[in-house]
Amino acid sequence: MTGHQRQYEQLAWPEIQKLAKGDGSTLIWPFGACEQHGPHLPLVTDALFAERITEAVLGKLNPELPIWRLPTQVIGFSPEHRAFPGTLSLSSDLLIAVVVQLGEQLAAMGWRRLVLFNAHGGQIALLQVAARELRQRCPAMTVLPCFLWSGVEGLADLLPADELENGLHAGMAETSLMLHQAPELVGEQRPVDGLPGLEGRLYPPSGWSLEGAAPFTWVMQDLSRSGVIGDSSAASAELGKLLEQHLVVHWTKLLRALLVSEWPVPGEAVDRTSAS
Predict the structure, then answer these.
(1) Which of 9, 52, 99, 208 ranks highest by number of CB atoms within 10 Å?
(2) Phi, psi dihedral angles at 143 (to 5 degrees)
(3) R_g of the chain, CA atoms, integer Å
(4) Can you name the residues that pair with 7 across neighbouring β-strands?
(5) How confident is the model over 147-169, as pLDDT tens digits?
């Protein structure tokens, strides 16, 4: 199966009608953002990652497996970055509405699974909420909200512990991956910014964190003058290639396991509303 045949918007309606009703029919929907990524990375960083990894994974899968991809959602929920020029953000209710409304249409066609493949950390929880809302409205379609970097084995062998924990935005990992995937879009600066202990940053007392067991709500200008949270100075295309390999292996494995399974079996959902 060619890349053209995997792309939802390049198919004709009779093809969609047939594919949607096939056994285990699955769509993957890449999600990114249009937001600042420091002075050296493009606004499209998250969307580009979601799209490139999706394409690489689809290229690894058996052409007979029932999966196709929707157009990438390039603009997402990015209010934490709006102090920096260039950032465009949808409101939370609007992005949820987009997922739910389009998801309802897909479910009505007969699609059985919808994978929300997200590369923007700032909308993880929001897409989980949207997925649950959509699942409630469309019980015949399973919705799987995923985050690009979550659960990927081997990242601790490639990134320093501090960077893995605190390098959340345009740091070593993202800069390296962009240097590998689209070096022409990377500027020359390599900021180190937004990390705990840097002078003038508004970090909370010990035990609280940006993202973790006890997180706090932050906006980028609280933490970083450059728009970077992390250390991009040690980034390299070689590291980016290794990161890409780990990402592709991980998501290929997960999607293959999903696609060769019969889960969820239609009609096996338990209705507990009538239980005595």
Answers:
(1) 99
(2) -120, 130
(3) 20
(4) 69
(5) 999 999 999 999 999 999 889 99
Residue 77 — very low, low, confident or very high, per pLDDT cuts 50/70/90? very high
Between strands 192-193 and 142-147, the pairing is unpaired
Q: How far is CA 236 from the centre of its chain?
A: 22
The answer to whether 244 touches 181, Cβ cutoff 8 Å, is yes
150: left (phi over 0), alpha (psi -120 to 50) or beta: beta
Identify the DSSP state of 95: H
- For 3-188+220-259, give the CATH class: alpha beta
What's the order of all strands across the beta sheet hosting 26-31? 67-69, 26-31, 113-118, 142-147
Whether the full predicted model's pTM is greater than 0.85, yes or no, is: yes
Q: What is the pLDDT of residues 94-110, one digit of tens each?
A: 999 999 999 999 999 99
**Measured distance CA(37)–CA(108) in Å, rounded:** 38
- Give CA–CA dist 115/91, Å, rounded: 22
Residue 30, φ and ψ in degrees, nearest 5: -70, 135
Residue spans of the domains in the chain: they are 3-188+220-259
